From TrEMBL:
Catalytic activity: (6S)-5-formyl-5,6,7,8-tetrahydrofolate + ATP = (6R)-5,10-methenyltetrahydrofolate + ADP + phosphate
UniProtKB keywords: ATP-binding, Ligase, Magnesium, Metal-binding, Nucleotide-binding
One GO-annotated biological process of the protein: folic acid-containing compound biosynthetic process
Positions with a binding annotation for substrate: 55, 60
Requisite cofactors: Mg(2+)
NCBIfam families: MTHFS_bact (TIGR02727)
Enzyme Commission numbers on file: 6.3.3.2
Pfam families linked: 5-FTHF_cyc-lig (PF01812)
Identification of the protein by name: 5-formyltetrahydrofolate cyclo-ligase
Length: 197
């Protein structure tokens, strides 16, 4: 029977959350342009006409510049809305309308689309606490994205967005943890050979 990695994951999440809280607004602003630039280049490289992304919270790498660009380019962007049953509904990004969601995270305001709406996107951009060089992603512990990615038959490329210091040598992985194909940081885009088994 595999070891329970939950305590190890909780400790790592707490450490990373504290690091993010200690970033100054100047440091945070300095990373936003790099994240936007790299996300745009990534979307262009896959010829994305539709993407799924998320509204970044204050402590997260900023995805809002990318979402503004996608809107200007006519790229359809789906944003997640957490449900109490552990699934994600989606809404099409439309302007700056948002509200506080189930776990205190920003969520879009708009028509709800079913969890299967993500099946039509060309690129998936997910939040993460950290990733490792094998493509193992550590989320924030609720399993929404692992469940979503694990249920997709033809999953498009999946990229996590993290700060540079959150690309680690190794991240604990349990059976349900879904890998990512790459990571976008303020200074680089990394591609991994994701093991989806």
């Amino acid at each position: 029977m595999p070891a329970d990695l939950s305590p190890q994951k909780r400790a790592l999440r707490a450490e990373l959350r504290e690091r993010r809280r200690n970033f100054t607004s100047t440091e945070r602003s300095a990373t936003a342009a790099g994240i936007t630039e790299r996300l745009i280049a990534l979307a262009q490289s896959v010829g994305a006409k539709s993407v799924s992304c998320y509204l970044s919270a204050t402590d997260e790498p900023d995805t809002r510049g990318f979402l503004r660009w996608a809107d200007e380019q006519g790229i359809r962007a789906l944003l997640p809305i957490a449900r109490v049953d552990g699934l994600l509904d989606w809404a099409i990004a439309a302007g700056d309308d948002e509200e506080v969601g189930l776990f205190g995270m920003p969520e879009p305001v708009g028509e709800l689309l079913a969890p299967t709406a993500i099946n039509d996107v060309d690129l998936i951009i997910v939040p993460a606490a950290c990733v490792d060089k094998r493509g193992v992603r550590l989320g924030w512990g609720r399993g929404y994205f692992d469940k979503t990615l694990g249920s997709m038959e033809n999953c498009p490329p999946v990229y996590a967005v993290v700060f540079d210091t959150e690309v680690l040598d190794e991240v604990p992985r349990e059976r349900h943890d879904q890998p990512v194909d790459g990571a976008v940081t303020p200074t680089r885009t990394l591609r991994f050979t994701a093991d989806r088994t």
